Amino acid sequence: PYPLYAELRKTPVARQEDDTYVISTYREITDVLHNPHLSSDTRNLSHPTAGAEEQTTPAFINLDPPEHDRLRRMAMRHFGPPHTPGLVTGMEPALTDTVSGLLDDCAGKERIDIVDDFAYPFPVAVICHLLGVPREDEPRFRIWVNDLINSIDYDPKTDPKEKLDKGVQARKDLRQYLGGLLEQRHGGQGGDLLSRLANDDGPDGRMTDEEIISTANLLLIAGHETTVNLITNGMLTLLRHPQVLRRLRDEPDLVVPLVEELLRYEPPVHIIPWRAAYSDITVADTVIPKGSRIMLMLASGSRDPNRFHDPDRFDPDRRDNQHLGFGSGIHLCFGGPLARRETEIALTELVRRLDRPGLVADPPPYRRSPVLRGPIHLYVEQG
Ligand code: HEM
To answer: In its keyword annotation, does this UniProt entry include Heme (predicted)?
Structure first.
């Protein structure tokens, strides 16, 4: 039940010693995320953080209007309903095939790791497919993504400098690789996202190559680990609620509200670690001065009893489930339809194909990250 969040919510807007303002209640989080004086651009912080990017072109998650809106619109129009013709709708067979292939490889094994054997390889394969990365390059791609994401996690056992160096190298390699791929796509007719972005003139014109590469990088970072964690948190939650797991076998349509409830109850993204105040902002009678850093506790907001009835209960029949799992406001996750569909297919097939699954360790070991929450391994025994 996350007692720390309950404690935090007693002070909805809490000022820390370093002038960071921590916001933990549903109403205040949504108010702030919809405030036009809020910036996602690190350059607007009075004390930029270590994570302030060295990238030449920041991706649109780190930009404000009008640049953010232009780039987001240009990427979004390829992405799926209601922005048809959608890549997501067209990807259904690829999603199902990938899931089947991974589960075929697990068949007959007494013990599987839901993370390494399934949840980890799945979204990388999906993003490769989306971008048009050839199959034979996938293993290299996977290593870069891994190094990049590990460099963001906190783990006291490994040397942070070594991990950061690996992350910087991976970022460079990935950019170079994507640049090469993009060059081949210019003038082509392919239906993949890189080809579409390179050749398609929409109402906003065309992205530059730099902008395309930053966008592709963003999709990778924003779309991989998050989906891994949603699938893994989902399987863990189902194994802890065997009656729901049994229901899902009999009522496949339950998976849609179930994934929505997971995004509220065990979301992959717990925190938006920073936003900057463009000018003084008043939230719940507290004035947050211009240039301050604002931290938004999304997972706490999704468990706020003033917004959700019996919030610590996992209830796939819950109505009015406007959780904060994908954020809110102009930066609302745009991979939502894809992430939902991936997780729906993954959980449906896991539950259908695993034979009397049981948890080996509860709780499982968790990834050490201040922002993302999910097990690093989830061992399940069958039969
Ligand atoms: C933004 C969560 C999957 C692409 C966000 C934000 C959250 C989030 C909380 C808001 C960040 C902010 O306001 O600063 C998640 C979760 C996912 C998921 C929980 C999986 C369960 C994906 C996927 C993709 C994706 C699969 C793409 C393939 C993006 C992008 C943004 C974003 C591009 C930035 C949007 C903008 O700045 O306008 N996501 N995401 N996400 N997400 Fe996701």
So the answer is: yes
**Pocket of ligand 1 contains residue 272 by CB under 6 Å:** yes
Domain ranges of the chain: 3-43+61-381
Residue nearest to atom 13 of ligand 1 (CA): 331
For 277-311, write each residue's pLDDT tens digit. 999 999 999 999 999 999 999 999 999 999 999 99
Mean pLDDT computed over 117-137? 91
Output the CA 335–ligand 1 centroid distance in Å. 6
Burial 218-239 (b: 16+ CB within 10 A, else e): bbbbbbbbbbbbbbbbbbbbbb
Judge if the beta carbon of residue 294 lies within 6 A of ligand 1.
no
Report residue 126 as tokens.
């999906």
Could you tell me the distance, in angstroms and rounded to a whole number, from the CA of residue 93 to the centre of ligand 1? 23
Q: Is the ipTM of this complex over 0.90?
A: yes
3-43+61-381 CATH: 1.10.630.10
Q: Looking at residue 286, what DSSP letter applies?
A: E
Cβ of 230 less than 6 Å from ligand 1: yes
Its pTM surpasses 0.80: yes
